[in-house]
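User: Hey, quick favor. My workstation is busy. Could you predict this chain's structure for me?
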Amino acid sequence: MSQRRLRVGMVGGGGPASFFGAPHRRGIVMDNSAELTAGALRSQPAEALAAARELFMPRGYPDWATMIQAEAALPESERIDYITIVTTNDAHFGPAEAAANAGLGVLCEKPLTTTLDEARRLHATVRTRDIPFGVAYTYTGFPMVMLARELVQGGEIGEVRKVEAWYPQGWLATKLEAENQKQASWRVDPARAGGSGCGGDIGTHAYEFVRFVAGLSATRLRARLKTFVPGRALDDDFTVLAELSHGAIATITASQVVIGAQNDNGFRVIGTTGTLEWSITEHGVLKHYAGGQPLRLYRQGAEYGYFPESIKPYLRLPSGHPEGFHEALANLHRTLEWTIRGRRGEKVPKPFPHPGIADGVAGMAFVEAAVASSKQDGEWVSLASS
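Assistant: No problem, here it is.
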């Protein structure tokens, strides 16, 4: 089969207040191996069609159902290969399930859905239809986070004892939603965001560091969800103590009221023989502390020989040239692209195991357990099986 650019459809992301639409569009086209072909970009049909014209999209649709039905009816040589979903949380499930049933791949923003029941139902559909499915935990696309995962799996810090993961922001320290700021308004609305505001939005990113880097999952947890801004229906501060598989523990904290914080997320994975530490504030560096040894710094760069073969195809620039958020998101699109191409028999690098549907379900189980624990004044709650 001759190779061609993959064709991608986008659901959401076309509004003037949308944040994630533009980074996804840049990520799709970054490596010139995929193109944005179709879109249902806004919730109102006329606005959706107008947004597609404004973004020079070849095929604009009034809504996602029309797009998926029409694209699935096209010959394989013409239809889109996968969709990316960048809507509010409550609008993830519908297009994701429809695309899976139509045989299209999916890259969905997180959290996967608004409820664990929806996540499980979607998982069952994806498994039955055997669809390539990714969940956009963007920070797992940073090469140094990928390297940390490989070092943990390679035994470089021994057996994991503890994980500390954090994600502070400060942008919701005041009642921004009262000013009709759209990004704030839907995130504090239970009907659109789900059962947890801060936890669902960024606490899931911190928990995914536990799963992706340390390779462990929470078995039970105690949580304190706090709403500091009066009149807000959902939490804006999220604190969890979790027991992990194999006896390790984790502290997982997130907050949207830390004035001065700029998405300062990161993690510390503590093992029996060493510790790995990463923060987005120094995203090109991974710190490795080994007992009785000088601090080792891994720095990002395509020429460095310490990157394993699993990561080298995701590196684009020599050292000293920063690759950041857009490149990390492009790496998730690249993983889904290579998964699709590999299934077609095309010769491509082996995709890195970035988060998929099972990780999305696990994130929802984590959030629901945290909400339940907080409602019980921080009692221990076991995580439901995903």
